[in-house]
Amino acid sequence: MTIITLTTDLGTSDSHLASLKGSIYSQLENVKIIDISNNIEPFNILEAAYVLRDCFKDFPSGTVHIVSVDDELSITNEHLAIEAHGHYFIGADNGFFSLLFNEIKPDKIVQLNISLISNCLTFAAKNIFVPAACHIARGGTMEIIGTPKEDFKVKRTELKAVLQTDMIRGSVVYIDGYGNAITNISRNEFDNTKKGRSFTILFGRENEMITEISEKYKDVTSSEKLALFGQNNQLQIAINKGQASKLLGLKLHEIVRIEFK
User: Fold this and answer.
1) DSSP states along 112-154
2) CB-based contacts of 259, cutoff 8 Å, min separation 6
3) Residue 119: count of CB within 10 angstroms of its CB
């Protein structure tokens, strides 16, 4: 059974998502639709890239991923189909793909040239991405639905942590559903800079600090703050059975510093 995933900012309170899924089922009988997230902040391609990058490798090879975030067609917002890491991705060339593939080089890129199945120009996910996804899911080649391209037209660079001899300066890049504040500081960056030294993690107004890394949330008592590396090996600030983003005032782009001694 073919799997098609959805990562969108369509939300769940309107009919758009149901219409999108209905269109897929109308074109493919034997298909499984998986919602990765339909609650991406509107037009937030950075959040969409983080969420999809965090999980797409867990899906089987051949999975088709539809991404509908800021995807209205324009001269500067072309539509692409991409093959990478054994998966297929369909979305807009608005900087999203350069964020998604920050460590993976795509095997093939085509600019979609599918004729609109509707006169509606504002619902690209249904009228362009779905036919492309279903074509690929049926075993069709990408060259039939698009013109080969060498690279993305629009590129965005994800903010990286700043590494110094005695300090790492990063920032919060994502707040998950539990209120955990996930940073752009990786485990490798932390280990390579730490070199056996003690450290202090500073954030907020820098009157909040953590001096050790936990292995799991329950390493600390309920309502106590902690720092750990999650499944994606990114440092996160959390509260056991609490919302770190609210209780510690951590927001997107908040600075997180690690000082080593």
Assistant:
1) E-PPPSSS-SS-HIIIIIHHHHHHHHTT--HHHHEEE-SS-SS
2) 166, 167, 199, 200, 202
3) 6
Single-letter amino acid code for the residue at 105: K
Contact 260, 191 (CB under 8 A): no
Phi and psi angles of residue 43, each rounded to the nearest 5 degrees, phi first: 70, 10
**Cβ–Cβ < 8 Å for 129, 118:** no
**Distance, CA of 102 to CA of 85 (rounded, Å):** 13
Centre a 10 Å sphere on the Cβ of residue 164 and count the other Cβ atoms it contains. 10
Chunked mean pLDDT (size 10), the chain, 261 residues: 95 93 94 96 93 95 96 80 97 94 92 71 85 96 95 86 96 94 96 95 83 96 96 94 92 93 92
CA–CA gap between residue 235 and residue 172 (Å, rounded): 9
CB distance 15 to 21 below 8 Å: no
